[in-house]
Amino acid sequence: MAKLIHELWHDENGTSVGYCGCLAGPMGDEARSMLAPGATLVHVYEAGSVFEAGVFRNQLLGFAPYRSEWQELDSQPYPEAWAAIQRADRAAKRCRSR
User: Fold this and answer.
1) Which of 37, 70, 75, 94 sits most deeply, having the most CB atoms within 10 A of its CB?
2) Rounded to 5, what percent of the chain is helix, strand, coil?
């Protein structure tokens, strides 16, 4: 099963305070584009499915247990191709930082 890297952001947008969970790398770009300029990355973690990510996030934040209306779909393992996208993005960033 492919494990994908997830990010948890704390976002204060002027009218509300909340958390945003998204995939790291290019697959999370759209979600991160909606964050307020002062949003802060509070945690990075790995999960093998949407459901696993939700369970971890809710435990981390002390929320009620994660539930999904689409449990069967959300429990499907992430495709290996998505993990390859994240690995390539991380490798490219390491090369640019040298």
Assistant:
1) 75
2) 45, 25, 30
